[in-house]
């Protein structure tokens, strides 16, 4: 595992200028048959990590197919990357009444 913070600190400010902004990771919990937060705004290139806190399995599956965690059992996580701008509605493929939305700018 490379520690980017350590590299940046060692190399000084010029290193920071050479790197594009680092993508952020956003956490979404799946708990009580809901996505929390259900609405999330991210930057293009950011990642979203979904963690299933429920006893039963869930997914986070974009309606347009742009991302899909696949089946997450209890305690499992999956990270997806949001590669384009737009508004992405998603559901749990196992429980389609569960809905969430990610907006990427
Ligand atoms: Cu579900």
Keywords for this structure?
105 residues; globular; mainly beta; four-stranded mixed sheet
Task: Walk me through what this model shows.
The protein contains 2 helices and 8 strands; from the N terminus they run H-H-E-E-E-E-E-E-E-E. With 105 residues, the chain is mainly beta. The strands form 2 sheets. A 4-stranded mixed β-sheet has the order 2-1-4-6, with no helix packed on it. It has a 4-stranded mixed β-sheet with strand order 3-8-7-5, with no helix packed on it. The mean pLDDT is 88. The structure holds copper (II) ion. Copper (II) ion is lined by residues 58, 92, 94-95, 98.
Overall shape: globular
Oligomer description = single chain
Kindly state the percentage of residues in helix: 10-25%
Please give the alpha-carbon distance between the first and last residues. Answer: 29 Å
Round the Cα radius of gyration to an integer and report it: 16 Å
Largest sheet, in brief, is: 4 strands, mixed
| Major beta sheet, strand line-up | 2-1-4-6
User: Topology as H/E string?
Assistant: HHEEEEEEEE
Enumerate the distinct ligands.
copper (II) ion
Class derived from helix and strand content:
mainly beta
Q: Count of helical segments?
A: 2
Total number of strands: 8
Mean pLDDT: 88
Report the uncertain regions.
Answer: none
Q: What share of residues are in beta strands?
A: 35-45%
Kindly summarize this structure in a few lines:
The protein is mostly beta strands. The protein has helices spanning 4-11, 13-18; strands spanning 25-31, 34-36, 39-42, 47-52, 61-62, 77-81, 86-91, 99-104.
């Amino acid at each position: 595992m490379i520690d980017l913070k350590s590299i940046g600190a060692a190399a000084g400010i010029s290193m920071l200028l050479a790197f594009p902004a680092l993508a952020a990771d956003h956490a979404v919990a799946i708990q009580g048959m809901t996505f929390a937060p259900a609405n999330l705004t991210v930057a293009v290139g950011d990642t979203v990590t979904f963690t299933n806190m429920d006893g039963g399995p869930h997914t986070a599956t974009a309606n347009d197919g742009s991302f899909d965690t696949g089946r997450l059992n209890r305690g499992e996580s999956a990270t997806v990357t949001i590669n384009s701008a737009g508004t992405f509605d998603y559901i749990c493929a196992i429980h389609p009444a569960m809905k969430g939305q990610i907006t990427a700018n």
